[in-house]
Amino acid sequence: WVAATTTVAGVTDLCVFGNYVFAACGASTAYKYSQDGATWTTVTTLADLYATYFFVAPNSAGTAEVLWKAVTNELKSNTSGLLGGGEEWSTAAYIGDASTNITNIFLVNDNLMIGKTDGLWHYDSDGGLHQLRPDLDKNKSTDNFKYVTEWSAGVYFSEINGMGEITSRNAYD
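Below the sequence we write its predicted structure tokens.
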């Protein structure tokens, strides 16, 4: 074991993509990346420097893994996310109501899901957005989809002050 640096503050999410670990630092502090956990590079040359959440999932064609990121209610992807990667983040997909924030990004049955305080959304391979839990609009909570894990044949998530389950696309309990 090697001690990781303590110079990276305000981390909201960590994600491993390729040979790098990415540290999201919120909507007003540029994200960072590292190959060893001790030396961190702050992204400064890309047009979009901010991330609250990171997630690795296939691109829309299903041919390669990409790095997805979310800030407030925006979702974007990039093939590297690195300072010298030479590629800007994709055009933002705005998820749901602009007044509510994304709380998590995850996969269910190979479908990219975006949890928000006011519902669950599926972002399809054609860039289409499908609202799957409109009932949560009346039960907004910053805990909705904040915690997500897979177990057995389901995906389990926090919902209001309890827990929910997705067993297959659009099958909720």
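The CA atoms of residues 13 and 79 lie 19 Å apart.
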